[in-house]
Amino acid sequence: MAESISDESVLQSQIPNTKVGRHPTNRRLWPLTLLLSTVVPVLAALLVYQLDSFDPAPFPIHEFGQTPISALLRNDHMLQGAEFVGAGKLLGPEDIAYDSESHLIFTGCEDGWIKRVRLNDSTVESVVNTNGRPLGVALGLNNEIIVADAYKGLLNISRDGEVELLTDEADGLKFKFTDGVDVADNGMIYFTDASYKYEFHRHWLDVLEGKPHGRFMSFDPLTRKTKVLVSHIYFANGVAVSPTQDSEKV
């Protein structure tokens, strides 16, 4: 019996230790694993950064010495007696255009719908979906609706709901963020492309980059020509033709 036990002890002593925590191969691999888990994300981040053209402007240190701009206090009584129109039916309306003859208000919503609101009973009706993001809205000379759609470009929408693309590029450069629009008394359409570099859903990159990618343009419905009036604008947004029709504000 003693001899049998001795043989078993000898046999067990010859079996190598196979516990995972003490395996020599694992001890050799963990530095490589640690290195890969650190280097690979860094290389991936550098690759994405190089592929993306994000190029921020230098930080304006000198602005810290400027006197803060003062603003008027808000008017807490401005909305007293106001009526909230289209609650739950108008999702993210950006701009409005009012037709004094039909007493209709037109607006574009974040779900792509152009909506109209009847002033007499505040009824909200759907006109047409641009399948984009309508932002600026203005009325044309023939009761058509002119829309600056962030993704589609400058659109003409008839009262029957037919959508026509007027323009989506100027000087060989496609619009990335068609934004504001207004129509002069002579029919000339003035509009902006807030950024020729970043799309609407990436507008925050345009703000962070801090460079003038915006353009102010005109579209002539007679000649069908698009003209760049001013370029290198910081986030060109809304447009308004002056009441005297002799200037435009961006």
UniProtKB/TrEMBL annotation:
Signal peptide: none annotated. Keywords: Glycoprotein, Membrane, Transmembrane, Transmembrane helix, Vacuole. The keyword Cell membrane does not apply. The chain crosses the membrane at residues 29-49. The keyword Repressor does not apply. Its main location: other. Belongs to the strictosidine synthase family. This is Six-bladed beta-propeller, TolB-like protein.
